[in-house]
Amino acid sequence: MVRCSIAAGQSSLEPRANLAAVNLDAIGFTANTSKVPELPLTGAFVFPDAWSDLDRFTALLRAFRDFGINAVMTESEHYDAAAIDAVHELDLRFYAGIACFSDHAAGFREIEARPELWPILETGERRAQMEWYVGLTPTDRRHQDEVLARIASLAKHPIDGLFLDFVRWPLHWEIELRPGRRRPLDSSFDRATLTAFAAAAGVRAPPDLETTAAVAGWIHAHHRREWVDFKCAVVSDFVRRARAALVAARPAAELGIYVVPDIDGLTEPLTGQRLAELAPLAEWLSPMLYHNILERPPSWIGAALADGVPMAGAKTLPVLQADSNRDPAVAADWGPDMPIADWREALAAVASRRDLAGLIVFPGTSLIGNGRGEVLRAMVSG
Questions:
Q1: Is there a contact between 62 and 27 (Cβ–Cβ < 8 Å)?
Q2: Which of 23, 93, 88 is nearest to 59 (CA)?
Q3: By the 8 A CB rule, do 2 and 327 touch?
Q4: Rounded CA gap, 131 and 268, in Å?
Q5: Which alpha helices (DSSP H) does the chain contain, by range?
Q6: Which residues 6+ apart lie within 8 Å of 288 measured at CB?
């Protein structure tokens, strides 16, 4: 999902919410105290700074519930037991999240300590930082094992489930797949990954190819199918191991995966996310339908769902962008101003469907104090 600041401990799922700008003190209404129906799932993503003040967080949760929210999604390196309890006390579900192949939320600490994790582009150059993002090469077994250990530790908390984020090959897709952009460069062609590919695919580059760019060009020209299959296998195999780690620690926990929507047929080859392989491994597949960040109209959401739903089926839990970034201190580009009419249209794209698991609001705090929460409530109650 969209991310921005790289302060230690911050969520790696999306840009820091300007929680101070959310007028929680104005939430003086009496919230609906009836339990929200468990299905369909209606989630709200929050940043971890949302629970830095438990009283304000509780007020936010009550507002969410009044709008028809029945689940809270987040992503952090550390979790507060009191915050999870507050969610459950209001009969809401709590879904944690973990960044798999990106360490920007930790200030690029791992990639600086282990430069072999830096993705190498098809040009032979290091992938440059774009906004807050670089990504990590996903083939490194040591890093994979560290993520799995974090999943096992995280699952000791009383979470209802876990969403895998950045479980893909490097791509700042929200920016790189905007209309009019040139095709993003493929990665990672680092030495360890090329060795793993050669072993997995049973192919070996000609010895006269002396540069990484030449090897990448040869793979694209002669073994593109094997290369894409290899990339997809790396992601699917890791998700399979992640599920095993989660279920071993918390058998009843549900697994979700944030996936990049198909855009111009580029998503699977670049990210290695093959929905047909991922769908059997998780309870939820959540396409990140950030139409405004992608600089596309809300009508694009319907087309994106038409591409993904046949493979994910009723496990499809789309993430909808509720508003653009209005905090000048946040550097991430969320696209142009997003009028509330766009939010209504985005919701309408999913409201009439009966083949979805529900939806997730991105970010949840965008529902407060501007009429957007009321628009959601009307859809859920209708």
A1: yes
A2: 23
A3: no
A4: 23
A5: 54-66, 81-89, 109-113, 141-154, 173-176, 191-201, 212-222, 224-249, 267-271, 275-278, 300-312, 340-351, 372-381
A6: 1, 2, 174, 258, 259, 260, 261, 319, 362
Q: What angle do CA 304, 307, 309 make, to 5 degrees?
A: 100
Average pLDDT over residues 162-191: 97
Tokens 């440059």, residue? Answer: 128
Q: How many domains does the chain have?
A: 1
Q: Which helix (H) or strand (E) holds 346?
A: helix 340-351
Rounded mean pLDDT, 258-275: 97
Cα angle 303, 102, 270 (rounded to 5 degrees) comes to: 40
The pLDDT of 11-24, averaged and rounded, is 41
Q: Is position 96 within any domain?
A: yes
Look at residue 37 and tell me if it is in a domain.
yes
Amino acid at 81: A
Supply the range of the domain harboring residue 96: 19-381
Tokens for 2, please give them: 């969209």
Would the pLDDT of 10 be above 50? no
Spatial separation of the C-alpha atoms in residues 196 and 199, rounded to whole Å: 5
Whether residue 102 is contained in a domain is answered as: yes
Q: Residue 230 is encoded by which pair of tokens? A: 């290899």
Q: What percent of the chain has pLDDT over 90?
A: 80
Conformation bin of residue 108: beta by default, left when phi > 0, alpha when psi is -120 to 50: left
pTM for the model stands at 0.90
Domain with residue 117: its CATH number is: 3.20.20.80
Residue 2 lies in a domain: no
Question: CA 259, CA 271: separation in Å to the nearest integer?
Answer: 9
